[in-house]
Amino acid sequence: MASDPKHRPVYVISVAAELVDMHPQTLRLYERKGLIRPGRSGGKTRLYSDRDIEHLREIRRLTQELGVNLAGVEEVMRLQHELDDLQGEFEAEIQRIEGELRDQQARPQALPAPDGHLDPRDRPVYVISIAAELVDMHPQTLRLYERKQLIRPGRSSGKTRLYSERDIEHLREIRRLTQELGVNLAGVEEIMRLRHELDGAKSQLEGNVRRLQDDISDRMTKWRTLPTTEEAASADDQAPADQDTETPGRHRTR
C-alpha cells in the first residue's frame, strides 16, 4: 500500500479541510471516531492522503445526500478500511510468494497443496421459510432485501431460493444495523454493497494466492526432475564411445 501514491500523506489538515469543504474540527472528530486514518509527520503533524480525501468526500455524500446517521457512516468506513487493508495484505502476500519463489529456485522444497474447497458458509441450503425463521423476519422482507441486492441467495435447479450461512449472517447484520443502530435503508445498502465487495475481494485474494502456489508447485516439480550438474557430468562420462572409434579385434574398412 505504501507504494500507492494515493496513500502517500501530503496534505496538512487545513488544506484537507478546504479540499472537502469541511471545518478542520470536523476532520478531527472523524479521526477520533475512526472514520479516517491520517498519517503523521515526524513532528506528529496530521497529514492526509488522496485516499483520505476520497473517504472524507464519501462521508459527506453519505451524510448529506443519503441522510445516513453517524452509526451507519462508521459501519461504511470500517468496511472501506477493511477493503484497503485487504488490498495491502494482497500486495504483501504477492511479495512474500515472489520472495519464496526466488528462495525455492536456489533450494527447492515442496509447498503445501491448496485445498481449493468452496467455503461451506457459501453453500446454499435453506429455503426462504427456514431462512426467515432463523433471522426472525417475514419471508416478504427477505424478498425485498433481495430486490435491493442487500442479499444474494442462490437458486436450485427449480429456481427455488436457497440461502447460505453467509446469507444468514448478512440478514442478521441488516437487522442489527436497522434495529440497533437506526441506520436507514440507504445506509444499509451502502454497507451491504461494501460487505459483498469485501467478500468478493477476499475470495479473489484466496484464488490468486492458490494460483500462485500452484504455479510455484509446478515449477518446483520441474526443477526437482532436472538433472544436477554432477548428474549431467556423470552421464557424459558414461556416454558410448564415438562410433568412428575402431572396435578391438576388427579392422576398419577403407
From TrEMBL:
CDD domains linked to this entry: HTH_HspR
Pfam families associated with the record: MerR_1 (PF13411)
Region of interest: Disordered: 217-254
Keywords: Coiled coil, DNA-binding, Stress response
Highest taxon, organism lineage: Bacteria
Keyword Coiled coil set for record: yes
Domain (HTH merR-type): residue spans on this chain: 10-79, 125-194
Ranges in a coiled coil: 76-107
NCBIfam families, per database record: heat_HspR_dupli, HeatShock_HspR
Protein name per the record: Heat shock protein transcriptional repressor HspR, fused homodimer type
Originating organism: Deinococcus navajonensis
